[in-house]
Design goal:
Blueprint: H1 5-56, E1 77-81, E2 84-93, E3 100-106, E4 117-121, E5 126-129, H2 135-138
Antiparallel strand pairs: 1-2, 2-3, 3-4, 4-5
C-alpha cells in the first residue's frame, strides 16, 4: 500500500491550516510574556526611585543613580527578554525632582502588541498609551 498524491496533498493542506492558526496564537503568547518583563521592569524602577528618594529627597534622572548600566548614562534603558530588548525604559523627572513618570515603550516585534506603552508615575498610577486593549486588561 502506498499514498496517492491526493492523500499527500490533503495532509499538506491540513498541516498548513493548523500552522496558520497556531503561529499567530504563539506570537500573541510570546508578546504577553514580554509584557510581564516590561511591567516587572517598571515596578523595579519605581522601587529603585523610592529607595533613591528616601536617601536624597529627590528622584533620580540618570540610570547610574538607580544602579543601571547604560551607554552614556542616559535613558532609555533596554528591558532584556531572552537576550534582546523588546521594551525601552525611560524616566521623566519633574522640576523640582519631586515627581517622575516612567514608561516602557515597545520596540522591535513587540511594537505590534495591543497594550502599547506602559506608564507608571511616582504616585503608583499605572496606565497604557497607544493601546488598543483596555489598561485593566494589560496590567
Amino acid at each position: 500500500m502506498g499514498f496517492t498524491l491526493i492523500e499527500l496533498m490533503i495532509v499538506v493542506a491540513v498541516i498548513g491550516i493548523l500552522a496558520a492558526i497556531a503561529y499567530p496564537a504563539y506570537q500573541q503568547y510570546i508578546r504577553k510574556s514580554r509584557r510581564a518583563d516590561a511591567k516587572m521592569a517598571l515596578l523595579d524602577l519605581a522601587a529603585r526611585q523610592e529607595r533613591f528618594s528616601s536617601v536624597n529627597n529627590t528622584y533620580a534622572s540618570s540610570p547610574s543613580q538607580l544602579g543601571y548600566v547604560a551607554a552614556g548614562d542616559v535613558f532609555p534603558v533596554g528591558v532584556l527578554s531572552g537576550g534582546q530588548a523588546y521594551y525601552q525604559l525611560n524616566v521623566a523627572v519633574g522640576t523640582p525632582a519631586t515627581s517622575y513618570s516612567a514608561t516602557a515603550t515597545p520596540t522591535a516585534g513587540q511594537a505590534l502588541d495591543t497594550c502599547g506603552t506602559y506608564t507608571l508615575n511616582d504616585l503608583g498610577v499605572q496606565g497604557n498609551t497607544s493601546n488598543a486593549t483596555a489598561t485593566a486588561d494589560c496590567w
